[in-house]
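REVIEWER CHECKLIST
Item 1: Sequence provided? yes
Item 2: Single chain? yes
Item 3: Sequence as submitted:
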Amino acid sequence: MLNGLWLSFFVVATVAALSRWLLGDDPAVFAAMVESLFGMAKLSVEVMVLLFGTLTLWLGFLRIAERAGLVDVLARLLGPLFARLMPEVPRGHPALGLITLNFAANGLGLDNAATPIGLKAMKALQELNPSSSTASNAQILFLVLNASSLTLLPVSIFMYRAQQGAPDPTLVFLPILLATSASTLAGLLSVAFMQRLKLWDPVVLAYLIPGALLLGGGMALLAGLSASALAALSSLMGNLTLFGLILAFLLCGALKKVPVYEAFVEGAKEGFEVAKSLLPYLVAMLCAVGVLRASGALEFGLDGIRHLIEWAGWDTRFVDALPTALVKPFSGSAARAMLIETMQSHGVDSFPALVAATMQGSTETTFYVLAVYFGAVGIQRARHAVGCALLADFAGVLASIGVCYWFFG
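Item 4: Structure as written out by the authors:
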């Protein structure tokens, strides 16, 4: 899938460049494409420098939380909920702890760190699966919630914004929180409908209603604020949450007699190993996207969508953010490349860049998650997993556009 997607970028770019040369008498397009290749390769290294630090930092703190027992506490707290949502998984099964840790990594925006944990969780669920090739209900729910990716603290997106020179990298904190909540809710409801899960069960409602009330109350409070006040509050909440979480990890580790420095270094080494393996993928995707933009193909496609939006009488400022949404279900690296390219082309705090960043944080890479997680355990029949995950993606994209008009429009 990724082979075809990556190759198609170059094929489409070549066709567009030939058209500009032969029909538009613009031979300079080839020079622009070559220049973009080298420019994006350089940008990839610049992004990786900060990515090394970010992954190393957060996997270090996550290891402290793990050794302090915070993950086990979360697993026990969520045990009654999972007993209703995943009735075939016994209480106390190792899969529940791994699922919790996976959600924690996704919640922190560490999608690269979440993947190996998620693979372990899927393998643990496969041990309970009576079929070797058909996805179980528990596996489908886990995959859809993973694809919807409830991102409470999008550290990676903050990092990309910082690398591109954003004066306030956490500006998109609240928009992402609202958009990712919408995508996760859509994913959960769709799976519950297909699997006939009893969401009105008193135990399930005891978990969902407080969260819904908290989110609804927060939105009610935000409704009366101006766009500038919303942006300022998003920044404040993002920074407070970020530092508060670090402090909580350290204090819990100290109280549990965890050697916090050694634990941090141990996790940081893992983060370094994860980060260094990403550079080839980042170079590949950024260069492909750069060639696509330099050839004029990307702008041509966006112009077509823009004309349709204008014909419908809607505002078109969000259209320049759509490349991130369109490739996100297929490739996380391609979506990151599109996000970075949008920031480069329009400005890191431009409306399209803010919408693209919110879209990036609202969902995960559906087909990639499907291929990797189900492929790792030999699942060939996904049942309703794809439809539910794509519905969550669509809800996240729509919510991202709406929330950004609310906050920044």
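Item 5: Key structural point noted by reviewer: Residues 149 and 403 are 17 Å apart (CA to CA).
Item 6: Recommendation: ____
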